[in-house]
Design brief:
The structure holds 2 protein chains of 2 kinds. Chain A is α/β, with parallel strands linked by helices. Chain A is built from 9 helices and 12 strands. Chain B has helices spanning 17-28, 38-54, 70-73, 130-136, 138-144, 155-163, 398-405, 411-427, 433-446; strands at 78-79, 102-107, 110-111, 126-129, 168-172, 182-188, 196-198, 201-206, 211-220, 226-236, 241-249, 254-264, 269-278, 281-290, 296-305, 310-319, 325-334, 339-348, 356-365, 371-380, 386-394.
């Protein structure tokens, strides 16, 4: 579904990604792990086209198409969705209206009929149960005054509504208590079907207890330094990241 | 009258034609019109004395530092002579569809009975004009009209009290809850070449435990040069509720000066939203005072400006008694060469313990030439209070634009939604969908977005589907 080849990216002239190679096929769940500042979140943001990052080398193909030439909105319409680590608050814009606008933009792109307010309300009600959100959330402004957990649930609700082919979860587990984590992970599992793919960016193994990855990759200093199955995550939990880092990086960490 | 008077100095000149006409009226009585009753003539005299003591404002005064009054001083205004009976194109588009409560229309300073609609009001509710009230409800009106005039601090308001031609009088008696809005439409219309001035004074009372919902608009025709110097006095009795929305959308060359004084008795709730959308120069002074404890005031403002419109907001909230609260959110969206000022002060007096008062001014600049002056101020003389204030001036947050884009919403639409949402943050305080929908339309017009998908965010329940 997505092929990332020798991807290099920088922010403000500082290189962050230094040659990422990653292929994710339909039906697969890939976990991306790694220490702070390794480039995990950058990878997620580059996939969805965050304007702060510049790709300097390499390519990204989404269903065989050059993803990097698409605007962020086009990438979304093509079926890529990122759940933000820090979802943005949008005062004055009501959640339902926002979701319906996004939903209908995608329907239009797919040549499908757009939904009226009533039709959309029905669809939304269904999706709400996936993340166990009360209906009153829909009448509030997008993310405004939401707790950390509510914001993350709202991200998953958006994912359920937009029904992407590829979901990228950027540290969706951060700031969640154990119950909220279970709800959010349960929601993701319901959304995930064999024709979809998921990239989970996470710090901790915790999330992977609820969403089982097919592959685990460790990023360090902008490169994938180790790939393996789900057992790699457990090994990381036990040993930390140090043993995987190249010699010079370990020295750097020590100095820091 | 329509002769240009010499201007002594651009800021200290006192030879203002506005003042001239008022002085003549106070000193020799209104020309060709019925004489004021003695008490009203006396009130005008007091107001003029107060005006003389204050003098015409100059930039040396802190509250008048940024506004350029030369267009006021340099224009030879004359009073409107007679009511407009001919049809005014488009005026009915401003009537609230769900008003049904009542509507008072004033054109060029005169009550326009044929455009007004008393609706069906509960017994005891008075919706009339001041001149009629002065005759039919003298004792009642005198309790309120010109309240605190001898301490008036605003020269324009003092001048208004000395010279007002008429104005709305709305009284809701004790325990009556008027859910449907009373609409007051102030309209100025005339020729481009004949500068005119009008002054209306409005008195709005919700007696103890009464409820009043108000919508006041100050509008004018494009190109007509005029100055509307209006003053509104709001009184919320004990446990009363007033919800007041004021919209200033003056004609392109219209100048609108408004002073609103709001008085809150114990346990009353007043929620005010003052919006400005167009005009040459607008100034809105809002003064809030409390006469009892446990009262709460929301004072919100919204400016959505383009072209070279200038809007100056000056607000004073005086917490003189303990256990009262206030919340203030003023927002501005400025495009082109527009300009606005927020000069807001909250004064917590010595005995006003347990005051909880918040003030915020946020501005969005859409062009390089737009300017905002913001001065949120707190003056606290009590030691057990909660107060907060702040201000922001900036552009749309690229992170917010990206967030919407990542949901498949293109840049243009995303920017428009965010800008509209910025305004909606204030509009949502207005409880009546009809008023919100009316304002939403004006906001979208000013943002050049009447046909965009954003219209599906308008708060009107029956909002048109545009996709």
């Amino acid at each position: 579904m997505i092929e990332i080849k020798n991807l290099h990216a920088e922010v403000n002239g500082i290189p962050i990604l230094k040659g990422i190679d990653l292929t994710v096929n339909k039906g697969e769940i890939h976990a991306i792990m790694g220490p702070n500042g390794s480039g995990k979140s950058t990878l997620a943001k580059v996939i969805v086209g965050h304007p702060a990052f510049t790709v300097t080398q390499g390519e990204v193909l989404f269903e065989g198409r050059n993803l990097l030439e698409l605007e962020p909105a086009e990438r979304s319409l093509e079926g890529i969705f990122m759940a933000f680590q820090y979802p943005v608050e949008i005062p004055g814009v009501n959640n339902t209206g926002f979701l319906r606008l996004a939903y209908n933009a995608r329907q239009k792109h797919l040549g499908q009929p757009e939904l009226s307010e009533d039709e959309f309300a029905k669809l939304l009600k269904e999706k709400l149960s996936i993340v166990e959100m009360p209906e009153e959330f829909l009448e509030r402004a997008v993310n405004e005054g939401f707790s950390g957990g509510e914001k993350k649930r709202n991200e998953i609700l958006q994912m359920a509504v937009l029904d992407p082919k590829l979901g990228v979860l950027d540290e969706t587990d951060s700031g969640l208590d154990i119950d909220a984590l279970r709800t959010v992970a349960g929601g993701v599992n319901q959304i995930m079907t064999p024709d979809k793919a998921l990239i989970l960016v996470t710090h901790y193994q915790r999330l992977l207890n609820y969403i089982t990855p097919d592959f685990v990759h460790v990023i360090s200093d902008g490169r994938i330094v180790k790939s393996g199955g789900k057992e790699l995550a457990l090994e990381l939990e036990e040993k930390g990241y140090d043993w995987l880092l190249p010699e010079e990086d370990r020295e750097k960490e020590l100095i820091q | 009258m329509a002769t240009r008077l010499p201007i002594k100095d651009d800021v200290t000149g006192t030879a203002c034609t506005l003042e001239h006409a008022v002085r003549r009226q106070v000193e020799s009585g209104p020309e060709g019109k019925p004489q004021d009753p003695a008490w009203l003539a006396g009130l005008r005299r007091t107001a003029l004395d107060r005006y003389d003591a204050l003098g015409f404002p100059s930039r040396k005064l802190e509250a008048w530092k940024y506004i350029d009054l030369r267009p006021v001083l340099g224009t030879a205004f004359s009073p409107y002579e007679s009511p407009v009976t001919a049809e005014i194109p488009g005026i009915s588009a401003h009537y609230l569809a769900d008003a049904q409560g009542a509507r008072l229309v004033f054109v060029n300073g005169f009550l326009s009975p044929e455009r007004s609609d008393r609706g069906s009001l509960p017994e005891g509710v008075i919706v009339t004009d001041l001149l009629t009230a002065a005759r039919d409800h003298e004792a009642l009106l005198r309790q309120y009209l010109g309240h605190g005039l001898d301490e008036e601090s605003d020269a324009f308001s003092a001048l208004n009290a000395a010279g007002f031609s008429n104005g709305p009088f709305v009284y809701v008696p004790e325990n009556i809850r008027l859910e449907r809005p009373v609409q007051v439409l102030i309209f100025n219309t005339g020729e481009a070449s004949e500068p005119k001035a009008s002054a209306l004074r409005g008195v709005f009372v919700a007696a103890d435990h009464a409820k009043l919902t108000l919508f006041v608009q100050s509008l004018g025709t494009p190109d007509h040069v005029y100055l509307g110097n209006n003053a509104l006095e709001l009184f919320a009795g004990e446990g009363a509720k007033i919800n007041h929305t004021f919209l200033q959308a003056e004609g392109s060359r219209g100048m609108g000066f408004t002073t609103t004084r709001t008085h809150l008795a114990a346990q009353s709730r007043v929620s005010m939203t003052v919006a400005a959308m167009s005009g040459a120069v607008c100034r809105h002074n809002v003064f809030v005072s409390y006469s009892g404890e446990e009262a709460h005031c929301d004072l919100n403002g919204l400016n959505v400006l383009r072209g070279d419109t200038q809007v100056y907001n000056h607000t004073e909230i005086h917490h003189t008694l303990p256990n009262c609260t206030s919340q203030q959110l003023y927002k501005g969206i400025l495009d082109d060469k527009s300009r606005s000022e927020f000069d807001g002060i909250i004064v917590v007096h010595r005995d006003a313990q347990k005051t909880d008062s918040r003030q915020m001014n946020k501005n969005l600049l859409l062009s390089d030439d737009a300017r905002v002056f913001t001065r949120p101020q707190l003056k606290i003389d009590a030691d057990d209070v909660k107060c907060a204030h702040g201000a922001t001036v900036g552009q749309l947050d690229p992170e917010e634009v990206f967030y919407l884009a990542s949901r498949g919403i293109g840049q243009d639409v995303a920017e428009c939604i965010l800008t509209f949402g910025f305004a909606e943050d204030v509009v949502q305080f207005i409880p009546l969908p009809g008023i919100r929908a009316y304002l939403d339309q004006l906001i979208l017009t000013n943002l050049g977005q009447t046909n965009s998908p954003v219209t599906c965010f308008t708060t009107c329940e029956e909002c048109p589907e545009v996709h």
